[in-house]
Design a protein that fits this description.
The chain has 833 residues and is mostly beta strands. The protein has seven helices and 51 strands. It is rod-shaped and about 195 Å long.
Length: 833
């Protein structure tokens, strides 16, 4: 049109007038304009028709170009969108067949998100001409397979920044529906399916907001049931996506996260994840991690960086395996292929475990730990037998583990510091153990130095918890092992014990051999050697057989001979055979020992004491008990043929005290004292009572004795009665009365031997009379009508002694021979010649 006007102007300038236009005729330029517009409309119509036709048919070239355009808009050089084809209606919607989001890695392209179909419904005119747009997108069967590359790093996509222009003020709402989705992890066989839910994406000029109303799924892992639900809000702005909040429910676990994600660099700028609570058993079951550890800790985990260069911090508390965990903290650094954990600390009651570790992404673990006041009987993270003793362990350990199924494979070395295990005091020690893939534990070597000894052992716990252990103990000083040997109180000795334990932990079989040399107990008992051999099984109903041999047993300085015994051990100890021999004296017994609380109840159905040709047997049962240091004899009756001896009382071994009572009934002294065949042997039938109370070596004694037809040193009488008491250092004779025919003799007073009772009796038994030179005497004697001829058998020089005597005598001695201290007065009647 402007060209026509310039042409007319030139004609006017040249003086040439155009011919006059006929009335009603259309200008020529308008025809050109209309023709051009018609051509353009025709071309656009043909192009739109062709594009709609190709789009409806899913032309591969057109589909590829559309996918490339979308991929270049949101992806990067390492992330792209692929699809098998696109078809649909320009004015109604579009369908992407088999869309895939692919991540390019050094190992090759990895599909990160796959779906069978993505359907988008939209209004074309609204998209082209409105600033408020709405789309409805349905994703069928999306699968999110999370995989690791060959370096062990998780593969994640990278997204580019939005290419929206600064003047673009449109806002687009996308309603997203997910149907029959799935998510999986290439480690542990983790897979959730039937994922469905709804979300809304609002694309605005400054940012994009995603609101996940509810997405849920269920476990598709055999034997690992579970469910997952998620909802939250995410905002994308300036190349970053911020989740705050993001709620995830995994069975009984409740998780809340706030995450700031850099889309372009695929890294976490900052994150905080809280657990309230975290169900450990459900999580470990879903992740196929064994053994299951029950617990519900609460706390928080923070993280920054990416899987190859990040930092994390963990702080938890709560209940783990039934134990209240006061604190569980750790700092972690993520490096290519591994996670380094520093400053890890766990406090469980009074126990502390701290250290560092390296967890490699292919499933290996290396850890250095420090133990402080750890009770092995309450460890929640190792499967130990229920019979494991409690204690307090301190030391340094190193763990090397490799992930395997059903249990990890691990090597554990432990250097023990001062502590205790049960009653075992630990000065130092070392343990090397291996944990097998099937739950077995092999202890290659273990040694512990305890006060006075070194303990060594090795063995194996099979996957079915069957035990197979061998052990050895070498004791340098049994006196230093008092806490371990209680209630037996050892004062000295050396020992070597070997044995083995095999079988189930509830009732294992055992074998034991031991030798103790130069043993001495705190109660004064001692021996040159003790040999023990035993075998049987342990558990709630233990049973076994033991052979015991003791050489040169003695109580203080008194020899008790040798002991040979056979014991059967069940819920009670049956003494099948017991034989103690000292010179010509033998003690044999048979019975059983039962345990009630801390007390041992002894019932002997037979007890025999033989001295030379003499033998005394128990009448009925012998009842006794041992609780702590007290041995209490409730009933002991010995038949002396004729007569009997009844004994009851208690002995306190550590205090070395006694409290006892003995009753003599019709005892023939010839069968008790001296040689019965000797004409000078004591004779007579004795009855009486004896009380002892006080220290074993010097007790208080009260004695009342009556002898019928006594005979001592050939001197016979009709009766002898005496009543005396002994207090440490002094014997008080209330009355000693001898009756022979019509005559009698009596004696009363005190004797101070200046010796302890035990030493005095020892001197008398040895025939040692040196004590008489130090004795203090205060005695008074009386005779009435005593026939002196009855005393002639005492000495041959008295063979001519005759007469009837009535006299009174007093004897005093103070550190001088007794013969110099007599003063006698009385009346003698001599027979007529």
């Amino acid at each position: 049109m402007f060209g026509m006007m310039r042409f007319r102007k030139r004609r006017e300038e040249n003086g040439v007038e155009p011919p006059a236009r006929a009335p009603g005729r259309v200008p020529g330029w308008l025809l050109w304009v209309l023709t051009a517009l018609a051509a353009i409309l025709l071309f656009v119509s043909l192009g739109a028709t062709l594009l709609a036709f190709l789009f409806a048919k899913g032309d591969p070239t057109l589909s590829r170009r559309i996918v490339t355009f979308i991929s270049s808009s949101v992806g990067t050089d390492s992330t792209r969108l692929e699809s098998a084809g696109i078809h649909g209606s320009i004015f109604g919607g579009a369908v992407l067949e088999y869309p895939r989001l692919v991540v390019v890695t050094p190992d090759g392209p990895v599909p990160w998100l796959i779906a069978t179909r993505l359907t988008a419904e939209y209004d074309t005119f609204e998209l082209l001409f409105s600033r408020r747009r709405t789309l409805r997108v349905t994703i069928d069967s999306p699968v999110l397979p999370l995989v690791h590359d060959r370096r062990g790093n998780l593969v994640v996509p990278r997204f580019g920044r939005s290419k929206r222009g600064p003047r673009d003020q449109t806002a687009t709402r996308i309603d997203i529906r997910i149907r029959d989705g799935a998510i999986s992890l290439d480690r542990g066989g983790v897979r959730f399916g039937n994922i469905a839910g709804n979300a809304v994406a609002l694309l605005e000029p400054a940012h994009t907001t995603f609101r996940v109303a509810r997405i849920s799924g269920v476990s598709q892992m055999r034997g690992r049931p579970g469910s997952i639900r998620a909802e939250g809000v995410a905002v994308v702005s300036r190349g970053r996506m911020r989740f705050d909040p993001l709620y995830v429910v995994l069975d009984r676990s409740r998780i809340r996260s706030a995450i700031d994600w850099d889309l372009a660099h695929t890294r976490v700028v900052s994150s905080r994840t809280g657990f309230n609570p975290l169900d450990l058993a459900a999580v470990k079951r879903l992740l196929d991690r064994a053994p299951l550890t029950r617990g519900s800790p609460v706390g928080e985990v923070s993280f920054t960086g990416d899987p190859t260069s990040g930092n994390a911090a963990v702080r938890l508390s709560g209940t783990i395996a039934g134990e209240p965990v006061d604190e569980l903290t750790a700092q972690a650094q993520l490096v290519p292929g591994a996670v380094r954990i520093d400053d890890a600390l766990a406090r469980v009651r009074k126990a502390e475990v701290s250290g560092s570790a390296v967890i490699e992404t292919h499933g290996a673990l290396t850890a250095d730990v420090r133990l402080k006041n750890v009770d092995p009987g309450l460890l929640p993270w190792w499967r130990l037998p229920a019979s494991t003793p409690h204690g307090l362990l301190n030391g340094d350990g190193r763990i090397r583990a490799i992930q395997a199924k059903p249990y990890p494979i691990a090597t554990v070395t432990l250097d023990l510091h001062q502590g205790k295990l049960g009653r075992l005091g630990i000065e130092r020690g070392a343990v090397t153990a291996r944990l097998g893939q099937h739950g077995d534990v092999a202890i290659d070597s273990a040694w512990v130095d305890t006060p006075g000894a070194r303990l060594l052992g090795s063995g194996r716990i099979a996957p079915d918890t069957t035990l197979s252990f061998s052990f050895e103990a070498v004791a340098r000083d049994l006196g230093a092992m008092d806490s371990l040997l209680r209630p037996v109180g050892m004062e000295a000795g050396q020992a070597r014990v070997t044995g083995s334990i095999r079988g189930t932990p509830s009732a294992p079989d055992y074998q034991l051999q031991g030798v103790i040399a130069s043993g001495r107990l705190k109660n004064g008992m001692a021996f040159d050697s003790l040999r023990l051999t035993s075998r049987g099984h342990l558990g709630p109903a233990p049973s076994g057989v033991a052979e015991l041999e003791v050489a040169r047993l003695r109580a203080g300085d008194r020899p008790l001979g040798d002991v040979v015994s056979t014991l059967t051990i069940t819920d009670k100890i049956v003494i099948e055979r017991f034989r103690q021999k000292s010179g010509d004296t033998t003690l044999a017994l048979h019975g059983d020992v039962r345990f009630k609380g801390r007390a041992a109840i002894v019932t002997l159905d037979s007890l025999t004491l033989a001295a030379g040709a003499r033998e005394w047997k128990s009448v009925g049962t012998v009842d006794a008990s041992l609780e702590g240091e007290e041995l209490k004899i409730s009933r002991l009756t010995l038949a002396t043929d004729p007569g009997r001896l009844d004994v009851a009382g208690s002995v306190w071994f550590e205090a070395r005290r006694v409290g006892a009572r003995a009753t003599l009934q019709g005892i023939d002294l010839s069968r008790v004292i001296g040689s019965g065949e000797s004409p000078n042997a004591p004779r007579g039938i004795a009855d009486g009572d004896l009380l002892l109370a006080g220290p074993l070596d010097d007790p208080d004694i009260q004695a009342t004795l009556r002898v019928t037809r006594p005979r001592f040193g050939g001197v016979s009488g009709d009766s002898l009665s005496m009543s005396l008491t002994y207090a440490p250092g002094a014997v008080s004779v209330s009355e000693m009365r001898w009756v022979a025919g019509h005559g009698l003799a009596s004696l009363a007073g005190t004797v101070r031997p200046r010796l302890k009772f035990q030493d005095w009796m020892g001197a008398l038994s040895r025939g040692d009379h040196t004590w008489t030179s130090r004795v203090e005497l205060a005695l008074a004697g009386t005779t009435e009508s005593l026939d002196l001829a009855a005393f002639a058998p005492i000495d041959t020089s008295w063979s001519s002694l005759r007469g009837i005597a009535s006299a009174k005598a007093r004897a005093f001695a103070s550190s001088v021979p007794m013969a110099k201290a007599f003063r006698i007065g009385g009346v003698w009647q001599m027979p007529r010649s």
